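Methods — Computational structure assignment.
A single polypeptide chain was analysed. Its primary sequence is given first, followed by the predicted tertiary structure written as C-alpha cells.
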Amino acid sequence: MFKTPRTISIGGAGKTKRIVMGGSNPVTIQTMWKEGIAGIEKDSSALSALLQRIDVLQSLGCDILRFAVPDTPSAQALCAIAEQTSMPLVADIHFDYRLALECLKGNVAVIRINPGNIGSRDRVEKVVAACKDKGAAIRIGVNTGSLPKELAEQVECGTLDRAKALAITAAREAAVLDELNFTNVAVSMKASSVKETVDANEAFASEYDLPIHVGVTEAGPLITGIVKSTIAFTTLLNENIGSTIRVSLSSTPENEVIAGKEILRECGKRSGGVHIVSCPRCGRQGFDVHGFVNRWQNELLSMDKDITVAVMGCIVNGPGEGKHADIGIAGAGGNAIIFKKGKIIRTVADKDADKVFREELESL
C-alpha cells in the first residue's frame, strides 16, 4: 500500500503563480532550461526572448521550470527572471549552499538540493531558514550518482539493491529537513533504468508521504527517452505515485512538456485541451502530413480549446478514420479537404490549406 502524499505549496511570491502539489491535486509538469543564463538580465533582447519562450512553455502545459545554477551570476540572473514571469522557477543547486541563499534573495519558488552534498549541518540550516523566510519549497534530488559512499559500496559489492539505496538516501535526506521542522519538501529518486526508477519510487512511497517528483534521468534522445518515461510513469501514476513529472530528453523543453502532457492524458491524470491525431503517412498520401503537423503542433497544443484535430494524408484516412475529430484536414488529388465530424465542408488548393484550416478552426 502506498502513502497518500502530503500537500506542499510552490510559488506565490510576487507575480509567481501558487501551485499546491500532492494530495489529490493535479499532477504537475516540469521541464528544465537547456542553456546557461549567467548575465542574461544585462541583455534585454536575450532576456525578452527567454521570457517569451517561457510563455510558450506555459501555454503548452508546463507548470514549473528548473534552471541550473552553477555560479553566482546564474543565481542573480534567475532572480531577475523570476521577477518577470508567473511560472514558478526551481534553482538546481549542487555543492555550494551560498548559491541557494543568493537565489532566495529573489522570488525563486523551489531550491533543488541534496542536503548531503552541500556540507556541514549549519549550511543546511541556513538554506532551510532562508526557505522558511521566503516561503520557498525544497526538492531533495537523489540519483544513482549521488549515493552516500557506504551505500554506493554496498551496491557495488552486490549486498544492496540500487533502487533500495536510492530510497534509503532520499529518506535520510528528508529526515534532516524533518528534524529542522521543514515540511514544504518534495523528493525525487531517479535512475536511467526504468526498473530501478520504478522500484525506488515504490519503495519510498510505501513508507513515506512526501510528494514525489517522478523522472527517468538521462533517458536519452527523443524516441528512447519517451519510451522509457512512458513505461516508468504509467506504472507509477497508475499506482498514484507521483505528484509532479519531468520527461528528461536530449531534446527541447517544448518536447519534454508535450510528452509529459500526453502521458498524463493517456493515464487519465489530465483532460481537456487540443488532442492531435495524425496518420503516419504512406504511398497513398496526397497531403504533407508531417509538414503540417510540424507547423501547427505548438500552436494547436497551446489553444484553450477542448477539441480533437485530425491530420490525415489521404481520403482513406481522412473523413473515414478521422470522423470522430471536431476538425480535420486531408489530401485529395492535389487539393486539401477540411472536414468536421467526418463531413467534408471545404475543398481547397494545397497552397490555401493553412489559411482555410485556420478560418474553420477559429470558428469552433
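Note: The longest strand covers residues 137-143.
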